[in-house]
Amino acid sequence: MTAYRYRALNADGKLVKGFLEGDSERQVRGQLRSRKLRPVEVEEANRTAANSASWRPGFLQPRISAGDLAMVTRQLSTLVQSNLPLDEALQAAAQQSRNARIKGLLLQVRSRVSEGYTLAYAMAEFPLVFNEMYRAMVTAGEHAGFLGPVLEQLADYTEQRQYTSQKLKMAMIYPFILVGVAIAVVVALMVFVVPELVGIFTHSSRELPWLTQALIATSNFFRAWGVWVLVGLIASAMLVRRLLRSESRRRKWHRLLLRVPGLSRLIVALDTARFASTLSILMASGVPLLDALRIAGQVLTNLVLRDDSKAVAELVQEGSSLNRALQQSGRFPPMMVHMVASGEASGELETMLERSAANQERELEMTLGTVMALFEPLMVVVMGGMVLLIVLAILLPIFDLNTMVK
Asked: Buried (b) or exposed (e) across 284-301, using 16+ Cβ within 10 A?
């Protein structure tokens, strides 16, 4: 059976959309009429999905959130481990979903599986939903005959990645809001408040204090050029983003980031933790080490670290141990290298990689917590200092008002 996408009119004349399975378009139209729906358009969903990677822009290809992907994976894992046939498990998961996009996606995957294709092959038609690591683990699970446990591991992995990402985003929300409010307050004071307060001093024949002169000049600049400065900043950000689309420029930028003290440590900790966790779960799923290294390298966001992971894979292919290859790179954390060496010696490499990832994520969380704890009072001090300067610039001429007035 094949999945079809339809649009039809109900008894009230309203347009409804959805997906149905059938042997032909004619049969699907018959099903719609039996439900008292008048078909407007019926098309094979697989035909659109199969060609999506070749003709659709990236932003038009089907996507689902990490949370939805974890939920779907968890449902499939439970159904498959209940000895339900794969196509029936996919259909049951589609029926349980209230999201039309997820329902259509699962039905399209099911129709491919019903045609005799493997689950990994069917998922490969949606690379923006099921990435290479996901498909590699599904392939390993299908070949080894333990697809259910592999899907459960994938659900755990996806949920953990979403939790870590959400935690980092939440940690950054407050500082961004604080900085934004501070900038908005200062700009508002300069544009609307300061001109009214210091305007009485501008016509004085006496020379104003340098701090007051600087305040007036800054206020005049913001009033005259503030909008253009904002436009320039937005244009510069868009230009930088466009320039960084080039892989060579992005690699140079990433190399520069790795030279910034403090920031480089956070980038390396975040990326290598993701690398170790991915490598661990791939190897635990039965993926060969060389293939696991190649796939795990793709999760590294920093291109320089990604190049290092490729060099590590080449050294391992030439016969080197994994810990020596990581140590030769020079960018992977020493603790990770030592734990990998211990895992290779004891035969528990997957476990040690998982522990290494957990340790790095814990260290990263503690570092971010310390930085945020220092950042908040620092911003309060900076904001208070700026307000103090503005107040002093206004009060200094007032203190000298008796000598200024003739």
From this structure: bbbbeeeebbbbbbebbe
Q: Do domains 65-200 and 246-405 have the same CATH topology?
A: yes
Mean pLDDT, range 301-306, rounded to an integer: 88
Q: How far is CA 40 from CA 2, 44, 45, 282, 332, in A?
A: 19, 14, 15, 46, 58
pLDDT of amino acid 51: 44
Cα gap 306→301, rounded to integer Å: 7
As a CATH number, domain 65-200 is 1.20.81.30
Q: What are the tokens at 286?
A: 């039965």
What stretch of H or E contains 61? none
- The hierarchical CATH code for the domain 246-405 is 1.20.81.30
Q: Whose structure tokens read 């020493």? A: 334
Give me the residue spans of the domains in the chain. 2-50, 65-200, 246-405
Mean pLDDT value across residues 294-308: 86
Q: Could you give the CA distance from residue 112 to residue 121 in angstroms, rounded to a whole number?
A: 8
| Percentage of residues of the chain with pLDDT beyond 70 | 89
pLDDT at res. 3: 65
